[in-house]
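@here heads up, posting the sequence + SMILES for the S-adenosylmethionine run so it's all in one place. Ping me if the SMILES looks off, I pulled it from an old spreadsheet.
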Amino acid sequence: MSNKTENTISANVTNFFRSLFGDEEIQSKFSFDREPRGTKGRLEKLPLLDLESRDDFLTGFRFWGTKMAVPAAARRFNKILLDNGLDTKSINTELEDVFPLIENDPILGIAARYRTGVHDVMHRNFDVEFKSNADIYLDEMEGFDNIGPGKLELNPNLKIPDYASYEIHTQPGGYVGNPFAGHIYHYSTNNFYQGLRVSNYQDELHTKLANQVPAPEDGLVNRVLDQGCGIGQLAVALKERFSEAEVWGIDVGAPMIRYGHMRAVELDVAVNFSQRLVEDSQFEDNSFDIVTSYILHHELPEDISKKVVGEVNRILRPGGVFFPIDFQTGAYKGAESAWARYMQFKDHRWNEEVWRQEYGKFNFPQAMREAGFKVIEKGPPAWRSKYNLLAVKV
Ligand SMILES: C[S@@+](CC[C@H](N)C(=O)[O-])C[C@H]1O[C@@H](n2cnc3c(N)ncnc32)[C@H](O)[C@@H]1O
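bot reply: prediction finished. Complex structure tokens:
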């Protein structure tokens, strides 16, 4: 697909939504009363019905995209390749040969950029709300910073690596450059899960994952770490499962864990949140029984992922388990077919998933073996997968 064709489609989709929804000027012109509107399970309702309605519309549109447009595009893509004598399943079918064949196809054009349109408008919807009312939301978080259960450790001196500063999946300011990154992440990922018809309003997905994390063979679970914990949904669910254990969630993004801490306190769950790098966690050797992560590694450069695997081996005690959940750690690898590689390309090129293609080639089990782990390639299942990679410290 040529950049010009995709850009034109994208601009049209985005302009259409903006014409429906108005823009930040409209939102800031009116002063709304921001009374709490209650919660939907564990997710606080958006402060205005107007915002919620827009979000509902975008969720529906995303669902149409994932369930209708993308499968139709996949069928079309494969047909075009077959009509032109290309093997749809072979790793040797080069995307460079495919692009000229599909660039003017309208179905592929729409499917290629519907999500960009949703992200653009959805992020704007949230970002404008939180920034236009910054004092209210910052005051709210400040009120929770120093109370428990569970503590919040922010490190203003942490040197943020460049690779962590991108606006991953086009989130405004990314995880580190927007004081409302946690708020935006919570609502936008909820929209994403709803679009897949996976309800996560009450952290159902994260609770399921926490229950799938295997305990060490000797059953001893005193300390658990969730790496790249974001807003702490998995860390909270792990604490609910291992209620006697000390549970830590670490993340490079201060706004992510600040929001996560506020939420954990409101839920009365004692998780310790700390702003640290997963590849250089500063925890003591042999100090954890379980280390997990969920959708962290596809957002890291390969050399950093390898470092993380080494770091986990250092901080786990012998017999401790490492259970990272992400695309390359499950049954679904997806890098073989031309369509799957095209989807990875799109994520990389249009969704700021900077390392998505690099991660598609990452040999996770090998990195674990090199770090000294005993590797069980078909460990217990995790989300959407028949099995997940599991490593045990020897
Ligand atoms: C896709 S989010 C996943 C968040 C969370 N695990 C969840 O369940 O939604 C990836 C998280 O990893 C964090 N992250 C990325 N690189 C990191 C690093 N080097 N050290 C610590 N956290 C990192 C990001 O700030 C972000 O919160």
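MO: Confidence is low (pLDDT under 50) at residues 25-32.
MO: One more: The longest helix spans residues 49-83.
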